[in-house]
Design a protein that fits this description.
It contains two helices and 13 strands. With about 250 residues, the protein is of the alpha+beta class. The chain has two domains: about 50 residues; about 190 residues, no CATH class. The protein has a seven-stranded antiparallel β-sheet with strand order 2-3-4-6-13-11-10, with no helix packed on it. The longest helix is centred in the N-terminal third of the chain and has 31 residues.
């Protein structure tokens, strides 16, 4: 009996080893998975906030959004309103790798207080063509920090610059493919092709700043790891072998 149990236990361990190798193979396949397609985006309805009681904006449903009431005849405030232009791009990326998902152009106009907005959502549309043909839409909120200009320094000083960044709590969005869950994470802005990255980028007064928006697609790990049936079976057989061996010795 002991010999037979030993043989069965050996087969079970072999099955466990095969299962582990298979799982490793699946992990490697996930790492080798490549997503490709193109992106586009439109701006949604902004959040003016409680402070901006005269919020002025336009461009919802398009890729060009502007906010702030312009005063073109004012010698100091003679600029168009602030604006954001999102331009999509094609992309190819494997799991957990940085790729450019689009370009953002930010014009910083000089506009009066109380006419700005605090944030605006970007409805980011990814049209995948690999590994599956499908479209996913992700909503990301962008905070707009409108700096109150200091009259004691030049208007073009970096201290007077406005800046934009994605809301951290909304920097990831998930989607499913082939029974697995993935996240799309916005990682930051880059003006040198991804060599360096920043969580925000600034535009000085009266100027336009352009930067690439970079992202990563990550595989969401399984939260609970249930033992494989082969492992459970192997442990059960081992317990049965110990009990049988003990009874044999007692005889």
């Amino acid at each position: 009996m002991a010999m037979k149990l030993k043989s069965v236990f050996g087969v079970t361990l072999s099955a466990c080893a095969i299962t582990a190798v298979t799982a490793l193979g699946f992990s490697n396949q996930a790492q080798a998975l490549i997503f490709s397609g193109s992106s586009s985006g439109t701006w949604g309805e902004p959040n003016p906030g409680a402070f901006n009681i005269y919020a002025t904006y336009d461009g919802e449903g398009t890729n060009y959004f502007e906010w702030g009431f312009p005063l073109p005849d004012n010698p100091r405030f003679g600029t168009p309103p602030n604006s954001l232009l999102f331009e999509g791009t094609s992309f190819v990326s494997n799991i957990n790798s940085l790729f450019k998902i689009g370009d953002l152009s930010y014009y910083n106009g000089t506009v009066p207080l109380y006419t700005n907005v605090e944030s605006v959502p970007l409805n980011l549309r990814l049209s995948f063509n690999n590994p599956v043909v499908k479209t996913e839409v992700f909503e990301f909120d962008f905070n707009l920090i409108n700096t109150e200009n200091n009259p004691d320094i030049p208007i073009t000083d970096i201290a007077n610059a406005d800046y934009v960044f994605p809301t951290p709590a909304f920097a990831k969005r998930s989607f499913s493919y082939d029974g697995k869950e993935y996240t799309l994470e916005l990682t930051g802005f880059s003006q040198d092709g991804g060599l360096t990255s920043a969580k925000e980028f600034r535009a000085i007064e009266g100027a336009t700043t352009r930067a690439g928006i970079y992202a990563k697609i990550n595989l969401v790990p399984t939260t609970e790891k249930v033992p494989e049936p082969g492992i459970v079976g192997g442990l059960s057989l081992w317990g049965l072998y110990v009990v049988t061996r003990k009874k044999f010795l007692q005889k």
